[in-house]
């Protein structure tokens, strides 16, 4: 069964609206068929074609003349639009529909995830990695735990000379701990990004990561590039904060690590890789 392309389709639950199909599921993203300020808008109407031919869609393919069946509610989340691109289908917003061009989306029309959703997903993932990764990294650096224990003893005894000595000795084990924690976090991200394009945090918020130029889970090389900025942020003051805030003013809602890897975070799931 061929998979329907992502794009704007007639909303099965409302004849006056378009709803975005992300290639896998219906999204919450809707828009009116006609701009409130453009009386001559042709959104939702098929292009004219020669007599005896099926009307053409905006991408040049033939489409059936029958519109989508209207119902009293949404189809199931995985029930695709008609097998052929239905009347009113747009892979991208029509040129004369400026109101739809103003919607933040990828080049092929997939709505971008908001900064708030990205932060919420990051907090969920941070909690998971902080617990699991912290335990792994702490267990792998026994000298670090020994030095912390000695520091507590020296502090209780008010032994300032010993405290200064311990602080000097902490540099190596603390660096090892930081690198191990980054490696655990990277393994966590790579497993999810390259298989389902969603970490547990992104799954909970209904968003996913993809390449800017193509849907689907990330290739391993792209996933590794996406981890360079977080690694540098361990050693460069304020870089992690700047990276996290960057989507607020970026025109494509990209963080710095997205710009490095040419990725974008979008609404909905990603289509699975073909076997």
TrEMBL record:
Keywords: Cell membrane, Membrane, Transmembrane, Transmembrane helix
Biased composition (Polar residues): 37-51, 67-78
Stretch list, region Disordered: 27-89
Record bears the keyword NAD: no
Protein localization: Cell membrane
Membrane topology: Multi-pass membrane protein
PANTHER family cross-referenced by the UniProt entry: MEMBRANE PROTEIN, PROLINE-RICH ANTIGEN HOMOLOG-RELATED
Protein name: RDD family protein
